[in-house]
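TEACHING EXERCISE
Course module: macromolecular assemblies
Task: Read the component lines below, then compare them to the predicted structure of the full complex.
Student: A.B.
Group: 4
Components provided:
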Amino acid sequence: MSGFTDRADAALADPILKIAVERTAGTAEAKRTIAIDAFPDFEAARTRAAAIKDHVIAHLGYYLEEFEANAIVAGAKVHWASTADDACKIVIDICKTAGAKSVARSKSMLGEEIGLPHALAEAGIGRVETDLAEHIIQLADERPSHIIWPAMHKTREQVSALFKAKHRSPHQEETIAAMAESARRELRTQMLGADVGISGANFLIADSGAVCTVTNEGNAELSLVPPRVHIVTAGIEKIVPSMPHAIHMLRMLARSATGAALTQYTTFYTGPKRAGDRDGPEEMHIVLVDNGRTKMRDEGLAEMLRCIRCGACMNHCVVFRQIGGHAYGGTYPGPMGAVLTPVLDGLAANRDLIHACTLNGKCQEVCPVRIPLPTLLKGWREKSWREGLEPTSMRAGLGLWAWVATRPRLYRLGTGIAVRVMRLLGTKGWIAQLPLAGGWTRHRDMPRPAARTFMAQYQRERRL
Ligand code: SF4
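Instructor-supplied answer key:
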């Protein structure tokens, strides 16, 4: 399939996908609402979270150097990667030096962004995904469809069938508990036998050199502590100045992502195992990845670097809830993905993606760090227009509309005729097929317009 439109068409034709997405996104939306209502002055907390991120982004070099110095003091090795390829090469080299045959990976969207699963496979290094949803994705040989629930596009019935086909000792009972037990049997020995553990980072704490991960399953701790080597791959925007800042961001993250007050497991790793420690890796490597982030900061997308990857924008997005995450085509789906994907994969290849938004503003309303996603998307649209990426039909159509719209009499005449034609095409209040608007009516009916335009009704009221 060529682009977003084709993938969205296919997603809309999949009724199971709609059920799966709605189950999880609907639950997330409801839980977040309860959690936010119970939070004292969430609006002020959002403002503070945005200010923390803006401050760090404006002084990124300072805080990254502070983090590096403190991480080294704690015994970690810090590596810098400008691109996704650089980051993968650094990770593979560390794995090879460690003689690793298999790695245990804790869910990381940055890992997906830089193509780490693929790079590990190419290097002949086995990989076990320890997050339950990532385990499902790995078994199904698919990509994540959501940044918090990577297997959101699957129903539990589909997951049950997958486990029965792929697990060595699958569940017998059709219960969630039995399915989780089946995954535990499958994963536990692989996790404990891995030579290297690889994780992302939710936050990097500059004044201590600590790395924070949050999970709901404890899989990060179980897969990162036993191996001899722990590798962290983290985007440079994950930095926060100190622990109180991290705690504030954690409170925002958990509530926005799952509606919980705090994620089940929140762990801070500061260097490798020290003398006297009962367990922990002998080596800890932290790979700080740019991969376009500095460019974003310098080219008008700095606000996007506030993102703490909570997923609230996609859970509340009317488009995402119709088509799920895979249709977006990139690593990141939903509204934040529509802004980030052109950065990572180019604007020309994502011209139709940046238009797949109603600009209703719901994403901005729920974003815990106040990212103006609709404004950033409009910025991409303007850039696409300026660079001549919009098709000729669109340019001609908008040019014609602008010409008519600036001539009030002609505009009123045109809209009056259009309303009459549309009313002729509609029955029982809806229009099933509309010439030149097939993109709309292919998947849903259009409301039949009222007999008079708003302006006609307004003028009539004024005369009465
Ligand atoms: S853009 Fe905002 S709402 Fe969306 S994932 Fe990032 S922080 Fe969460």
